Every structure is written in structure tokens, then in C-alpha cells.
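Q: What would this chain look like folded?
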Amino acid sequence: MYLAYIPSPSRGELPLGPIPLRGYAFCIIIGVFVAVWLGNKRWIARGGRAGTVADIAVWAVPFGLVGGRLYHVITDYELYFSEGRDWVDAFKIWQGGLGIWGAIALGAVGAWIGCRRRGIPLPAYADAIAPGIAVAQALGRWGNWFNQELYGRETHLPWALHITSDEGGRVPGYYHPTFLYESLWCIGVALLVIWADRRFKLGHGRAFAVYVAAYCVGRAWIEYMRVDDAHHFLGLRLNDWTALIVFLLAVAYIIVSAKKRPGREEIVEPEADVPGGPDAEAASPEAEKPVEGAKAEGAKTEGAKAEDAKAEGAKAEDKGGATAAPKAAGEDKAAAGASSKSAPTAGES
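A: My prediction, written as C-alpha cells:
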């Protein structure tokens, strides 16, 4: 008898009128919103513009969903294309089945398109959203709980997951909640990336590479515990080999990138409004006041110049009047003299 265990939901959806709210899809949607929110905060802190992360996510998210589904369908093709299976089920994404490897690979293509349209370096964008992707994975894994899938071996631990469904070859019982292990691991990865980014000033895609490497380590041991059907090579599941290869590539990128491009990007988005920068000061109301004051001072100066010009004109008029008075007096004296001289001549006649 199990005294403690994690119960499974009796159903994987909630009816909301004619449209059912599926737990798997709900977890993915919440994860996307959290990833964009956290990525936006980190992007602004790096000197980017608010809203840029969401604009690029419009490209990255659809590409990521398609890539994740393609990876799952290709690696588990027998679930959809073998005898007795319906290939149409390959499009029923709400029933579960997204491969994180395909989601990241094709999502990166979508992000590259969005970054290219905005003139933004993809590595800088990847560094900003890396912790958010890890948190989105942590939330998305709870969709597996709603679908009662991707659990591990049988266990008697008090946190065992109680599987009640017998559909799709499931055997009711108590198993390792590998979905929970991976969810907690992804939260730890997000915290690790945030700490390492602050501590070592990671740039040029190295924060994203830390996320990839750390996730691969956790995925390897969690994948080893799972009991669902999977392709095996040399005794290891396909996803274990994928995790190993991707881990080595991420570590190699960190080493090579640190040597070739040390430090962090100084500018992540052209013409971004950096807090406290000249653009922000010019756009703020406080910055407009000095400009208005300068205009008022300029108007006063122009007024003073006009007054000075009037004063100079008045002085010139005064000087001109003073000069004209002596001239007029001299003319009067000359006229008087001429009159005195002409009087005797008239008498002699």
C-alpha cells in the first residue's frame, strides 16, 4: 500500500463550452509567455528595446513547434505510419509529442529570420532568452503529467507517480515521475544560466551554450530512467546519444567562442533606447523643459538685441539733432549779416 504518491489527473482537458482546454497545450502556452516575459527583461537589461523579443518570438515559436513535432514524428514514425495506425494523428499535436531537439533547431531558424529582419545578432538574442527557454520547458513538462506519459521505472518512493490509464499500452501502477525530475532540472538550469551570465559576463551566444550543455546533462540521466518505447543504439536510447553529441558541441562552442570573441556585445540592437542615454533624455518630459527654457532665453536675447538697436537709433537721432542746431544758428547769423550790409547800399541809391 502506498501512503504517499503523486496522483494523475482523471482527464487531460477541461471543457470550456465548445472548445476544450487541453492541459498539454495550456502548459506550452504558459511556458511561451513566461519565456518571452523573462527574455524581454534580460534583453532590455542588455541595452535592447522593449518588445523586440516578442517580435522575434512570432517567428521562433511557430518554427519551434513545427520542428519539435517533426523530430518526434521522424524518430517515432511507427506510431503514425505502421500497420493499423492513422497517419492523420501525426498532426494532433495536442495529444503530446514534441522533441526538444527539433524545437530548438528549427526554432533557431525562425529566430534567425526575425533577428535578420531587425538587424540584431542572433547570439545576443539567444543569450537573452536562454533562461526563459529553460523555464518554458519546466512548465511544458507538466503537459506530460496531464497526458499520463513519459514516466520512468516502477518505484516505491513517496513521490511515485500513480498512472491510472491503460490506453496506448500503459500499465497502471506507480512509477518515477520523470516529467517532474526534468521540470525541476530545467528550473535549476535557468538559475545556473542567470548566475553564470552575471558572474562571467557571458556574451556572443555563450549563455545559450551553457543552457544547452546543462540541459543535456540532466536529459541524459532522466532519459535513462524512462521506460517508454524508443530506438536504441549500442545499448543507449536515441535521445541519450543526441544529448551526448549536443553537449560536446555546446562545450566546444563555449571554449572556441571565448577565445575568438571574449567579453559581451556592447550594442545588441541598433538605435535602441538605452535607459539614461541621450535618446531617453531627449524623449523624457524633463529633457523638454530645458529645451523650452533655452528657447525662452533665446527669445529674451532677441528682444534685448531689438531694444539695443532702438537705443542706438535714438542716440543717432539725438546726435543728428545736436549737429543740425549749430548749423541752423550759423545760417541765421549769416543771413543777418547780409541784411545789415545791404541796408546802406539801398540808402545811397
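Residues 17 and 23 are 16 Å apart (CA to CA).
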